[in-house]
């Protein structure tokens, strides 16, 4: 009898993914069938008649199997689409932050220094002209406008208008200087002003060179952070949903791991429920956390060794504006070093206290 019941149930769930929830439903159906068969037998039916009648009460087997399969396919399709959305958000957010960091902090500064070097050379040789400004602008696509003026020694540059401006329609403020920031015409891109003052060889004139360079504004960086936060939260929701579908023990432990390690934590969870290779997974996590911790600690040490600058100057490290003075460099540097040590040691502590030990 049990073989017939198991065969009947297995046929119904033939194309349905095997999860703890499905196994629970199978067990409930098995109990229900056994009770129904016992009841039919008590009414005078034979065992075979009772089994056949109990099966018939469920209706058309093919129809039931189709409905179960379709429902499972729908759930899995929705889960895949939700995961695809999460991945897109994560990739997009990471790309935005990477683009912001690489362009604003590195590439654009190098291009600006190149322009200033060329402009300073020509200004000192008194060879600056509108044609040269046009040539500089056309050979550096990161520059949107450039202006030049000569200021007598001891005078303020605000007292003198630009001798040359290119393009001529660049917005000017009430002081006769470039307006900053100004819209670039491209979504989430703005023009920012950068100035260079250089004295002539006889020190009688100061050459003032203003450059408008396009950069991504803070809103662009903020958008990337928001997308990553949304990705992180949605992934926790998705992973937790799968966690409850599988009725895994110690759910809160895994939710904490998902929250801290995200996709790496979910990888560990899959490893836990499907294999006995937990130590291997934790080896990978410890390697990643160790490398991240070493890098953050290195940046902290590097920060503490930086030469101090004026109080108005700062540097961006891990998205934070850090003033280039002695006190800030030491405090932030020490925090990064401590954070690096924490990242190196944390996986070992979590492994010993939270994760089930495998043989």
What's the arrangement of secondary structure elements?
Elements: H1 2-12, H2 20-42, H3 47-57, H4 61-124, H5 130-138, E1 143-152, E2 164-166, E3 182-183, E4 190-199, E5 205-215, H6 218-245, H7 251-261, H8 263-274, H9 278-304, E6 314-317, E7 320-323, H10 326-353
How do the SSEs run, as a string of H and E?
Answer: HHHHHEEEEEHHHHEEH
Give me the oligomer status. single chain
Evaluate the radius of gyration. Answer: 34 Å
Counted up, domains total 3
For the residues shown, what is the average pLDDT?
79
| Helical residues, percent | 55-70%
Low-confidence stretches: 355-359
Strands across the major sheet, in which order?
A: 2-1-5-4-3
Q: Give the number of helices.
A: 10
**What is the tally of beta strands?**
7
Strand content: 5-15%
Q: Label the structural class.
A: alpha+beta
State the distance separating the first and last CA atoms: 39 Å
* Tertiary shape: elongated
Biggest beta-sheet profile: 5 strands, antiparallel
């Amino acid at each position: 009898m049990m073989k017939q019941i198991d065969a009947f149930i297995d046929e119904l769930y033939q194309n349905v993914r095997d999860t703890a929830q499905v196994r629970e439903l199978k067990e409930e159906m098995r109990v229900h069938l056994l009770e129904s068969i016992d009841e039919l037998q008590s009414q005078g039916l034979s065992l075979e008649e009772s089994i056949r009648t109990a099966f018939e009460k469920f209706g058309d087997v093919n129809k039931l199997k189709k409905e179960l399969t379709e429902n499972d396919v729908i759930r899995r399709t929705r889960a895949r689409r939700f995961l695809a959305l999460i991945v897109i958000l994560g990739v997009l957010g990471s790309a935005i932050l990477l683009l912001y960091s690489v362009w604003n902090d590195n590439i654009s500064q190098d291009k600006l220094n190149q322009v200033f070097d060329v402009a300073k050379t020509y200004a000192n040789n008194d060879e600056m002209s509108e044609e040269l400004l046009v040539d500089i602008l056309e050979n550096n696509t990161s520059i949107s406008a450039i202006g030049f003026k000569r200021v007598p020694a001891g005078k303020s540059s605000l007292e003198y208008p630009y001798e040359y401006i290119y393009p001529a329609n660049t917005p000017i403020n009430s002081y006769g200087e470039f307006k900053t920031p100004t819209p670039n015409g491209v979504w989430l891109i703005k023009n920012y002003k950068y100035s260079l003052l250089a004295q002539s060889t006889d020190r009688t004139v100061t050459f003032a060179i203003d450059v408008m360079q396009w950069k991504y504004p803070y809103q662009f960086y903020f958008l990337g952070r928001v997308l990553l936060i949304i990705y992180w939260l949605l992934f926790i929701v998705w992973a937790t949903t799968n966690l409850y579908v599988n009725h895994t023990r110690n759910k809160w432990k895994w939710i904490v791991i998902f929250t801290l390690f995200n996709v790496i934590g979910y990888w560990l969870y899959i490893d836990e429920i499907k294999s006995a290779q937990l130590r291997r997974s934790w080896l990978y996590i410890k390697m990643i956390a160790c490398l991240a911790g070493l890098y953050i600690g290195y940046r902290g040490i590097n920060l503490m060794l930086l030469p101090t600058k004026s109080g108005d100057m700062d540097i961006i490290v891990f998205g934070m504006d850090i003033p280039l003075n002695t006190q800030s460099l030491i405090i932030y540097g020490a925090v990064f070093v401590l954070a690096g040590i924490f990242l190196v040691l944390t996986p070992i502590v979590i492994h010993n206290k939270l994760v089930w030990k495998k043989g």
